[in-house]
Amino acid sequence: MKEEKEYVLGIDIGGTYTKLGLVNRNGDILANSFFDTQAQSSFSIFQKKIEKEISNLKSKLQKEQQLLAIGIGAPNANFNTGKMEHPPNFKWGDYVPITDSINRILDLPLTITNDANAAALGEMHFGMAKGMKDFVVLTLGTGLGSGLVSHGALITGANGMAGELGHVNVFPNGRQCNCGLKGCLETYASVTGIRRTVFELISEMNIESPLKKLSFKELSGQKISEAALNGDVIALKAFEYTGKILGSKMADTAAHLDPEAFILTGGLSNAGKILLDPIISSMEENLFNAYKKKIKVLISSSPSSNAVLGPAALAWQSLDSN
Amino acid sequence: MKEEKEYVLGIDIGGTYTKLGLVNRNGDILANSFFDTQAQSSFSIFQKKIEKEISNLKSKLQKEQQLLAIGIGAPNANFNTGKMEHPPNFKWGDYVPITDSINRILDLPLTITNDANAAALGEMHFGMAKGMKDFVVLTLGTGLGSGLVSHGALITGANGMAGELGHVNVFPNGRQCNCGLKGCLETYASVTGIRRTVFELISEMNIESPLKKLSFKELSGQKISEAALNGDVIALKAFEYTGKILGSKMADTAAHLDPEAFILTGGLSNAGKILLDPIISSMEENLFNAYKKKIKVLISSSPSSNAVLGPAALAWQSLDSN
């Protein structure tokens, strides 16, 4: 019974929304809330908003319920320094002191990592990676994020910035990436990547497609998925190309980590089998013998409303390791 | 003083020689020996030889000196199963039961891993990676082996076969690799790889070079290094090409692990600066922002006679974690 009295606060800071939740050791959410991050406004506005939300959530705790720790997932968050470093799409500065800022509101043990790392811990504690010790989570959204787990622990690296698989190279001098490099994996294997691929295919192929009616801004991952399900050749080819590239790079990641599974999450993963089939076939083709037919490729079943579970798992794991 | 009374037995099984040594916790070698592995003969011949060598070494221990454990480094050794799996250049079968075989001779706690993983532990306990928690060792010999360390522990993977960076892909449909895949990193960045590169350059360029007098069998890494040091254009270009490819793939590995350092060892690393300069320049060019100028690239200073230190470190680490 004691377990049900103990909670951690999970905070997921996204480019659009910030989500908070009180989560117990079993992954049950006692209470949660969210607010508009306003990443384009000043950081002090965010600070005021989150202070209010934290205070609201704390008031939901009964007397016998105890808040033990805080876990935060945020873009480009550095596990070691507690700062968001050069977060793209945020106007909060180059080094955002998230840890200090939250600890001023609530003085509890606090652990922070990037959103994809937090997602990996969420899968391990409460999701599809339960019982796994070695696996990789890929978040296929606007960009491509990744969380790598070995021996049941996140790989965090010497500078707290490990797991940036979105920036392994696919083609030297390939597509321009936001990060300044060219040919990064996330310029191909992400929602933005597949939109670029559709435009490339339209430019190369001379066939009809409903996607030709859409501007780049209008073209969503959802619309490409729908077109593919309706048999549109361009959309199908786009998924095939995306899966082929991602699968070959997953084979390279396997040669590093020998994972039990890759777990895919984020907008692009909603496409399901149309994406999964070319990924698996390309990965198997490129896998070193020792790994062939041994690695599962799964699509996460955790609903996106549970974005706070990852950060909460981070907090629980950090409590357990101390 | 107690420490000096405690030893482990380190065994390095190579394609040519097998080396054994009694090693204390400080990395001091009390006694060592080696013998011809005879990888092309039957496994039972090896068993008889190593039984004799182990018995000889044990007789060197004083009464108050105690042997605590065994560590083995061997090609394609599986950390989990204790077997060498499909070792190339060995005619001992597809699954060689090394652990069982050695434990029949000496019933002590035994840990086994592939030679490059053992080398990584040797560097961490007794070599250039002392004090490091996150780093990568690359052994550039006949092939390319690797040992990956995160949080001070070897990454071993779900099947005990992590760290096969020799088989990440450089070019789809590139050079044929022994493993059956095409374009693997070790077909470019290894002693064999640079020999292939020299032959490719000779076929493409129409200039004089002392290397043109040598057959593929005669062309050693040493001879390419010597030619490069004498200003031979083909040899210099071969090192540049090798370094460029290896450096770009090290940038991809950095995007996985955010390592403090890469430590290079094995025959090709003897070339020193001629190899190091193009590696560093290519790696930096391809590194994601978060890692630029933060990663050391070092050439191991451990003499090759100390091949038993890696396996010994494995034994010590395994004792400490139990």
TrEMBL record, chains A, B:
It holds the Pfam family ROK. Keywords: Kinase, Transferase. The keyword Kinase applies. InterPro entries: ATPase_NBD, ROK, ROK_cs. SUPFAM superfamilies: Actin-like ATPase domain. PROSITE patterns: ROK. Its EC number is 2.7.1.2. GO terms for molecular function: glucokinase activity. Belongs to the ROK (NagC/XylR) family. This is Glucokinase.
